[in-house]
Every structure is written in C-alpha cells, then in structure tokens.
C-alpha cells in the first residue's frame, strides 16, 4: 500500500476527517491569525503519516494555484476585502492539501462504497460507478481517434483543428452511446435489474 | 469555474448546497419517471464523455485557454434532467478523484455548472428551437450553440455572485473579471457545441434527445427549475447588480431584524469604493455583455446556416447509396 499505515484506516473515517479538516479551515476567521497553525500542523502531520511524495503534492498544489491566485487577486481591488486576501489564500491552500491527502489515500471505489452507505440515490451511484470505470477507457479511445485524425490531416490550419476536434468528440459520444447499449445487455445478461 | 474551498463563507456554501440539493432531487424525480432502464448505463457513459470533453482545451486569447463545460451539450443530447445528474456526477468525481473544485464548494459548483448552466441554457434552447420560420435542423443547431454561450455566461455570473456574496471580492471586480472571460469562453463553447451536435446529427440523429423537440419535459419541471434558477440569480446576482439592493435592507428594517444581523447580509454593491474605475468597469462589462449577446447570436446563426447544408448533403448522399 502506497500510503503506509494510513491505508488501513476505513475510508469512511478518511472521508469524515477530510471533511472535518476542510470545515475547520473554512470556519477560521477571515484574517491572518495564529489559529491557522492548527489545521496546518494537523495537515503537515497527515502528509508525513500518509507518505505523500512531496513532488506530487507540490505539483498538484501548483496546478490548483492558478485559479486560487486568480480569485485572490480580485479581492485586492477593494479596501473592504483587501484584508481577506491572505486569509483566503491560506484557507484554500490548506483545503486543497486536505483533499489531496484524501485522494492520495483513498481510491475512488472506496469513496463510492461510503457514498452507498450514505444512501446516495441508486441512479447516481450507478452513474458514478460506471463513470469512474469507463473514464480511462474513453480517454484511451479519444487518444486513439485523435492519433488517427492527426495522421490523416497532417498539418492543417486552425479551422481544420476545430472541425476535427468536434468530429472526434461527436464520434466519442456515438461510441459511448453504443458502448452503453452493450453494457446494458451485458448487465441484464448477468441478472441486473 | 471550479470554485475551490476557502472562497465561500458558510452562509453562501449552505445556500448553494441547499439549492443544488433541491435541483438534484427534482432531476432524480424526473429521471425516474422518464428514463427507461435501458438508458441507465448511458448516464454513466455520458458522464465519462463530458469529463473527457472537458479535458480538451481550446485557445481563447493569446495565452489563455478555455475548456468545454458541456452542460448545454448534455442537456440537448440527453435531456435536461438527465444532464443535471450527469453534470453532478462529473463534478463529484472531479472533486473526489482529481481535486478539481472544493468539497464544501461542491454545492456551489453543482449549482453553477450543473443547474444554472444546464437549465439556463436549456430554456434558451427550447425558446429558439421552436421558431416556426426556421428549418428544424437549422433551428436546433442555432438554438444549441447560442444556448451554450448563454448558459456559460449565466453560470459565470452566479459564480461571481457567490464570491461577492461571501465577501471575498467585491462584485464590482468579480463581475467584470468573470463575465468578460466567459463571454469569450462562451463563444468557444457555442462553436464546439454546434460542431459536436452536427457531427452527431450527421451520423446518428436518433441519439439526440432534444432533436426536433420530440423530447417531453413536463410543465412542472420547467416551472420548478425556472423558479430555482431565477431564485439563484435573485439571491446571488440581483442584490449586487442592481441599484435597488437597498430594498433588501429596507425589508430587513421593516421586518425588524436588521439590528440582529452583525453586518449587512450582502455587501453593498458599488458603494464604498475609492477606486472610480471599478464602477466604470462594471458598466463597461454590462455593455460588453450586450455586445457579446449580439456576437453570439449572429455567430450561432451563421454557424447554423453554414452547417445545415452539410447535414443535408450527407443525408442525400446516404439516401442515394440506399
């Protein structure tokens, strides 16, 4: 298990912990405050305990940073909201770290099991399960079609790119509809109702 | 447009979560009534499809790029109620699997991109799709691409409103920033929605649920979602955008709970600014919005009339081949 001892914590507890960490952080006062050290220390401890690779953590944080910085800059424009800016930056970075820890330690099918116990409606559970299962399949299919497209329309201007992008997406939708039909038949053949 | 945690305060997060929950419950009820068991796997595959489509970036302006939101595309392809479920699942997976969008902000994200985007766009789609003087193919394409633009801009407005409502950044700043970017991104969304729809209509028109208006959406669905979306706009956007936002405080005063609130429920829209350009930026963005509507409308019109001959040609070709 890639996350050491933490991997044995039940997924429900991990989800609850992440939720609590995010809630705690969001409810902190909206100005730089020594209280921010509390979630920061907890999360730092969790990062060490989960053995997250720091490079992975930093890369994902950086990826989220564009949008976070974008909004935080907006709050600099008015004297009323200016003090909020730093707090908001701290808060969202702490929250993103908490969620990163959750996804690092908990595969989606385990989260799905928790959601099932939380009585999420059956339609949504089925949709989530099928979606997470077929995401890599569809991604691979899209890559294949894109490669085929690129080899046929070598070069090509901007217009060709838009048009072919749309054709790839349209084809992808048609193929997923056909696949859904086959899945339905396979599911009923195995006694799903 | 995926809001991370930390930008919304508790009040806004609760309000949006409530609105999103109501919208999902309505959608679930409709889907249970109308969806054949045969179509159940389609929702999951469509969600995976929308997710894959969102990963494709297109250039907006030098340097920046946007990506499809896909709410209107899903609404036209699957029907609006199913699209709400699909978008909700996409956002849940993005939050819980890929850290895109916050956990407490999930309600706001579902409300913006899953409900306001889908239904706001779908209202416009149905409005223009029924134009009697247009050929149905052309009306469908035109309505879908214009609705995609409209839905994107509408969702960005509620998103900006939620940030402003939380007191994170003033509306006079979030509105121009979010709206101007999404007026542009929306053009890409509209173009791509129109092109993708053409590709599907050309090959397998029977897959498009919104095709020719044969899809049945109960009047109650229209009514309740219309109410929900306009309530969302009324709560998050109107008090900030309109000069009569003081009316809300007047109501609070007459009801006698104004002294109980620690501060005003909503930060005053354009008051208390020391920077004059913010006020003019908001006005300029509103004007740009009007221009954007015109550009998107004409663009969608031209797109539809360019694409329809292609559809017809392909059909004749297929017929002659037998």
Your description of this structure?
- The complex is a heterodimer of chains A (193) and B (322).
- Chain A is 76% helix and 0% strand.
- The longest helix of chain A is centred in the last third of the chain and has 32 residues, at 158-189.
- Chain A has 2 domains: 4-113, no CATH class; 121-189, no CATH class.
- With 193 residues, chain A is mainly α.
- Chain A has 7 helices and no strands.
- The mean pLDDT of chain A is 85.
- Chain B is mostly helical.
- Chain B has one domain (10-241, 273-321): Arp2/3 complex 21 kDa subunit ARPC3 (Orthogonal Bundle), CATH 1.10.1760.
- Chain B has 11 helices and 2 strands.
- Chain B has helices at residues 10-34, 40-54, 71-78, 80-98, 106-129, 136-165, 171-203, 219-236, 238-241, 246-255, 276-321, and strands at 57-61, 64-67.
- In chain B, strands 1-2 form a two-stranded antiparallel ribbon.
- In chain B, a hairpin with a 2-residue loop joins β1 (57-61) and β2.
- The longest helix of chain B is centred in the last third of the chain and has 46 residues, at 276-321.
- Chain B is globular.
- The termini of chain B are far apart.
- Residues 242-252 and 255-274 of chain B have low confidence and may be disordered.
- The interface between A and B is large, with 72 and 77 residues.
């Amino acid at each position: 298990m890639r996350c050491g001892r933490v991997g044995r914590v039940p997924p429900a507890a991990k989800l609850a912990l992440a939720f609590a960490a995010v809630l705690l952080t969001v409810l902190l006062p909206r100005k730089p405050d020594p209280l921010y050290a509390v979630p920061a220390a907890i999360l730092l401890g969790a990062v060490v305990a989960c053995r997250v690779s720091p490079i992975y953590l930093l890369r994902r944080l950086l990826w989220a940073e564009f949008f976070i910085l974008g909004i935080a800059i907006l709050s600099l424009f008015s004297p009323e909201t200016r003090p909020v800016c730093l707090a908001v930056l701290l808060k969202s970075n702490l929250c993103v770290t908490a969620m990163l820890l959750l996804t690092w330690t908990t595969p989606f099918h385990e989260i799905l099991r928790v959601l099932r116990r939380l009585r999420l409606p059956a339609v949504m559970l089925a949709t989530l399960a099928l979606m997470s299962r077929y995401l890599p399949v569809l991604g691979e299919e899209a890559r294949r079609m894109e490669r085929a497209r690129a080899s046929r329309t070598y070069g090509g201007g901007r217009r060709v790119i838009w048009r072919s992008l749309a054709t790839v997406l349209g084809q992808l939708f048609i193929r997923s509809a056909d696949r859904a039909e086959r899945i339905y038949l396979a599911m009923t053949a195995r006694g799903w109702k | 447009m995926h809001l991370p945690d930390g930008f919304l305060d508790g009040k806004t997060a609760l309000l949006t979560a409530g609105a999103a929950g109501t919208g999902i419950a309505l959608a679930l009820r409709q889907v249970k009534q109308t969806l054949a068991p045969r179509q159940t796997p389609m929702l999951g595959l469509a969600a995976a499809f929308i997710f894959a489509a969102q990963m494709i970036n297109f250039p907006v302006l030098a340097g920046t790029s946007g990506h499809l939101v896909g709410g209107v595309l899903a609404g036209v392809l699957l029907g609006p109620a199913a699209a709400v479920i699909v978008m909700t699942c996409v956002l849940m997976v993005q939050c819980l699997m890929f850290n895109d969008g916050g956990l407490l902000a999930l309600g706001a994200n579902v409300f913006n991109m899953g409900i306001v985007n889908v239904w706001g766009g779908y209202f416009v789609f149905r409005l223009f799709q029924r134009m009697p003087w247009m050929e149905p193919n052309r009306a469908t394409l035109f309505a879908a691409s214009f609705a995609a633009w409209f839905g994107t801009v509408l969702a960005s407005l509620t998103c900006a409103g939620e940030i402003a409502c939380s007191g994170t950044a003033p509306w006079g700043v979030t509105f121009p920033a979010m709206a101007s970017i999404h007026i542009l991104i929306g053009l890409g969304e509209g173009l791509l929605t129109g092109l993708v729809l053409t590709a599907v209509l050309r090959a397998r028109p029977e897959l498009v649920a919104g095709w020719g208006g044969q899809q049945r959406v109960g009047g109650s669905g229209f009514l309740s979602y219309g109410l929900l979306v306009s309530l969302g706009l009324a709560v998050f956007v109107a008090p900030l955008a309109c000069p009569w936002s003081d009316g809300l405080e007047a109501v609070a005063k007459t009801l006698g709970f104004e002294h109980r609130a620690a501060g005003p429920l909503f930060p005053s829209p354009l008051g208390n600014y020391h920077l004059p350009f913010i006020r003019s930026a908001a006005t300029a963005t509103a004007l740009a919005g009007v221009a954007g509507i015109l550009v998107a409308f004409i663009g969608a019109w031209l797109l539809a009339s360019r694409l329809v001959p292609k559809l017809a040609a392909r059909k004749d070709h297929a017929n002659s081949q037998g």
